[in-house]
Amino acid sequence: MSVTDEILVSVKGVSRFYGDLCAVNNLSFNIHRGEVLGLLGPNGAGKSTTIQMITGNLAPSFGQISINSIDILDRPKKAKQHLGYLPEHPPIYKEFTVDEYLRFCAKLHHIKHSERQEAINIAKQRCSLNEVGKRLIGNLSKGFQQRVGIAQAIIHSPPVVILDEPTVGLDPIQIREIRSLIRELGEDHSVILSTHILPEVTTTCDKVLIINKGSIVLTETTEDLQKRMQSSSLFVGFHQAPNAEELHKFAGVDSVSTTKEGYFRIHHNPDIDPSEQIVLKSVEQGWRLIEIRPEQLSLEEVFVDITTTEEHSSINNDDVMVEAVYS
Question: For residue 36, how many other CB atoms are within 10 A of its CB?
Fold first, then answer.
């Protein structure tokens, strides 16, 4: 995906209160054309409230939201014309055929009659619905019904597409197909993907925004998130193993533990990787190195770590800790 400098979604200082309860607290972020943003947060974090405000279904108590440079409070109808939205439960009419339903959606979006069929054909093609156009939606599989829901969200070619839990309830093959479609949409649109399926973040999104307790606790690229998953430990094995005290002498090593005979786990300073020195020393001392590899945390382990953090300092988008992933 090629991310441009064009900002299609701008959220500035947005807060939402329910009485004395602050559900969303001073959120600010931008989404550019060609960017797929993964919006994540634990239950009650304010993620759904944020989506409702971006889509214009809920007014913020404070702050400003612009869609394609149009203020959604000042000109809501105009701003919403630039949005496509798939709720968690797709708004489909199961007694319609796919063609009938998409024709109905095209009318709702005020697509000109002369352009309507072309818009339907493009949406069906992009969502792989050409073979089921005449079938009743109610008779389609859950995966195809999700495709119909996405088709209605993009039928008017909006610059911004918001997808809320688009792969929930799908089988692995359907999930793979929907993820591929989302990546394709990201080439021409700004896409906001709300999901609780953690692998979806790294396979589909190129930027992650994590909310907890109504505040942003992380916003960075998925590439940087992957780097955060790299733990500062090495797993090493030797034929002629030294004692743990010898390994502890390397610069940056904090602790050494024995996992089994000849194998060790070495925890080290994240900024000082002792791998090269261990290899050189092994050759010099005849330790006969069998294996040396950095250990990597799973995304789920990172999630557990960051969701169990109790306190958050004031957030700076360039200097934050990962503190919440879930939905």
Answer: 26
Any idea what the CATH number is for the domain that residue 292 is in? Answer: 3.30.70.100
Read off the CATH number of the domain in which 65 is found.
Answer: 3.40.50.300
> Kindly report the CA angle at 312 between 309 and 314, in degrees rounded to 5?
160
Domain assignment present for 78 = yes
- Write out pLDDT tens, residues 209-244: 988 889 988 888 888 877 766 667 899 999 999 999
Residue 162 sits in the same domain as residue 290: no
Tell me the mean pLDDT in the region 42-48.
Answer: 85
- How far is the CA of 282 from the CAs of 236, 256, 278, 285, 290, in angstroms? 11, 16, 6, 5, 10
Are 58 and 49 a contacting pair, CB within 8 Å?
Answer: yes
Lowest mean pLDDT among 111-125, 156-170, 299-313: 299-313
Question: Domain limits at 176?
Answer: 7-82+158-227
The structural domain count of the chain equals 2
pTM assigned to the model: 0.75
- Check: CB of residue 10 under 8 Å from CB of residue 65: yes
Residue 270 domain flag: yes
**Residue 189 carries which DSSP code?**
S
